[in-house]
Smr/MutS family protein (Roseateles amylovorans), 213 residues
Amino acid sequence: MTDRLRSLQDLQALQRELKLRQQAEEERREREAALARLRDREARLFELTVGPVTVLPAANRVLLHTGRPEPEPRQRELDEQMAWRQALSDDFDVDSLLETDETLSFRRPEIAQESVRKLRRGHWALQGQIDLHGLRRDQAREALGQFIHDSARRGLRCVRVVHGKGNGSPGREPVLKARVRRWLVQKQEVLAFVQARASDGGSGALIVLLQAP
């Protein structure tokens, strides 16, 4: 009788243990299901907010990743342009500061006289020119300043400036000839200039030597 009672008690304990395990398993499944529903809701939060979402088909394209363009020194260029525009004055007194002669030649103090003679003889090949014929004074001043500035930046050493002989001007006086000389001596890029040879324009043009880059 005692053995039967003990076996019954063991069986009841086993049943209680199995029931507890079953309850624990059901609670675990419910927690996992609730967690899965929460994750699904979070994943579909945008869709639940704005409505049904249709996935677009993948575009048949190749995405090209190009490098960023180099920054352009726009402000520096504007500053340089403003500087050369302000530098060219019609009232600049050439004779009081620089040596000139009757043939309108000019050289800076650091430039040897031999360089001027070479320039006059055509020692350097002409690499560029500007023709100021037909331009008004302000137009010619701006065009000349820009030309000298650009030529120096490009590394040109010898250029020609055609200002004309004044044959078509009132009184047949060369309007730009003296002004071009004043403007050129104010440009730091200009080392020297001479009147062109007859084959290069004679008294209607100047041959200009520019600084080396």
Remarks:
- The mean pLDDT is 78.
- The helical segments are 2-43, 45-50, 74-87, 94-97, 113-121, 137-153, 177-185.
- DSSP finds seven helices and five strands in the chain.
- The longest strand covers residues 190-195.
